[in-house]
Amino acid sequence: MSDVSQGAGWWQASDGKWYAPEQQPNDPSPAPPPAAGSPGGPSGAVPSPGVSLPPFSFDIKRLSLAERITGAGTLLLFISLFLPWFTYSFGPVSVSVDGLWHAWMYLVLILCLAILAYLVARAGFSEMPFKLPMAGEQLLLIATGVNAVLSILNFLFKPGGIGFSGIGWGFGAFVGLAASIVAVAPLAVPAIKARRH
């Protein structure tokens, strides 16, 4: 033991004294504690693994027949919103407006996107990555029911009001009306039958 190093191999202990190489202890000195704020330190939190989504693998067979029909009808209704719903001819000039003429049809547009997103998620995930407030069939029935009612109203209330002459229906109006009924029918018919029993 010395107050100063005596050459190679001499080591300094925690008491500030220098010791010969043969006096080196066999057990390693404990590692210093982690610094404050570092992961695992006194005020640092250990990072937790993130929540991961189940793997996505699109399989149409995960959807029931009713959901497939609803999906096809909803997709057709969505496309029809951008087709001519109403036409007006005066002389050689003819003009038309699409299915979004009435502002409430933007709700139909949003519901179509929500329905299609839900069905893609149902077909893509073996287990849904999010929780729904009610059964999926009920949500689909409500959404497609609202779409059907608004599409029927859109069909009946032509620009200019009922009875306004000169305005006719375009191709998109018939496609949209039929598509909205096709989308809701496979969900509404079983629900109506179940209520009767």
Give a quick rundown of the structure.
The protein is mainly alpha-helical and about 200 residues long.
Describe the structure.
By secondary structure, the chain is mainly alpha-helical. It has a domain at 60-196. It is 42% helix and 10% strand. The protein has four helices and five strands. The strands form two sheets. It has a three-stranded antiparallel sheet. Helix 1 (65-80) runs antiparallel to helix 4 (171-196), helix 2 (105-124) packs antiparallel against helix 3 (136-156) and helix 3 (136-156) packs across helix 4. The mean pLDDT is 82.
Largest sheet: 3 strands, antiparallel
Q: Tell the overall outline.
A: elongated
Structural class: mainly alpha
What percent of residues are in strands?
5-15%
